[in-house]
Amino acid sequence: MAHSAVSQVSVAVAVPVGSDSSIRRSVFKVAVLLFFSFSRVCVFNGLQAHTLSFCGTLRAPVLTLDLSTKNARSKKGYTICMSVQQANSPKVAVSPLQLEDAKEPPLNTFKPKEPYTATIASVERLVGPKAPGEVCHVVIDHGGNVPYWEGQSYGVIPPGENPKKPGNPHNVRLYSIASTRYGDSFDGRTASFCVRRALYYDPETGKEDPSKSGVCSNFLCNAKPGDKVKITGPSGKIMLLPEDNPNATHIMIATGTGIAPFRGYLRRMFMESVPTYKFGGLAWLFLGVANSDSLLYDDEFSKYLRDYPDNFRYDTALSREQNNKKGGKMYVQDKIEEYSDEIFKLLDEGAHIYFCGLKGMMPGIQDTLKRVAVERGESWEEKLSQLKKNKQWHVEVY
């Protein structure tokens, strides 16, 4: 169940009840000032709360004033208990809400022969200095002319000539969109990509060979605000977020930049105020990367975990920092195995499960799920067939 806009916590302040009335009055004033001061601060702008506690201990009998129940008692060791409102950022208003009106997702509005020319809005490095490789968050401005739904992809045509087809443009490269239909600016004018810079290293020399670097990924990671980019699409239906049941369970499994569609899902669930979609189910994210510096959008996901602990779970597999139960490197399939009983139970109850990332992730995950199914006395082939039939199984790998 989603949390309400405001949570209540108790502030405990000890107030002595003795012969020294001046101390008694002074401490009581402090207690009252604390209460009203923090009440004003914490309800500012309708914010939402975590836990806040103030405790004072004095070696004297104290008077308890429980302001939430209006009870007052006098007994040694009792304290004043006051309900204080403390909270987190409210959800962000989005527009235009007409983007919710379409009954079917937009598909191939712009084709490779007639792409749309968008503008680079920003490029930001996402990973820390110890991450192997570079991943960038690229925001493009499409002016509201290329609408899309969460889970879809855009095609990008990098500038230049196709070396395999002289005189022709490069082939289209598909990128999963890493934002909701409202974009990072919440106005329906932008879309975001999560792009890993593709580099090639000569196996003999170990040195980078720029001539074989990824054409499109390097174009996007090197782009500057104002640069033009040709896009096609949007495309894809497999990874669309099912919204017919706002209380459904969604299990999301990503490796690296496969996090892109899930960032869009989670922003829609927990960041944006969408009148037609009030998420009250469970979103469970598994993210596999090399190390802590490689975690993508970790600040956003950690905030959802703090704000919506009943609706969001977040597990990471850091292959270069963690070990699995057998002592080997921790990969995302090892995390799945760790929670396999719970995952299978949720799937039996109708949960959706999504996989996004490199093709190489799937064999290990499939082997793990098959092994778990056998241990449970089930046929994985039959179970997988049923999941696909029920439209609970969503895979996008590249």
Tell me what the structure shows.
The structure is a single chain. With 398 residues, the chain is an alpha/beta fold. It has eight helices and 17 strands. The chain has helices at 21-42, 215-222, 260-271, 298-307, 332-338, 340-348, 361-375, 380-389, and strands at 7-13, 61-66, 71-76, 80-86, 92-93, 116-125, 135-141, 153-157, 173-176, 190-196, 228-235, 249-255, 272-273, 282-289, 312-318, 352-357, 393-397. The strands form five sheets. Strands 9-8-11-6-7-10 form a six-stranded antiparallel beta sheet, with helices on one face. Strand 14, helix 4 (298-307) and strand 15 (312-318) form a beta-alpha-beta unit. Its main location: plastid. Its cofactor is FAD. It is found in: Plastid, Chloroplast.
Search tags:
398 residues, alpha/beta, disordered N terminus, single chain, globular, five-stranded parallel sheet
Short description:
This protein is α/β, with parallel strands linked by helices. It has helices spanning 21-42, 215-222, 260-271, 298-307, 332-338, 340-348, 361-375, 380-389; strands at residues 7-13, 61-66, 71-76, 80-86, 92-93, 116-125, 135-141, 153-157, 173-176, 190-196, 228-235, 249-255, 272-273, 282-289, 312-318, 352-357, 393-397.
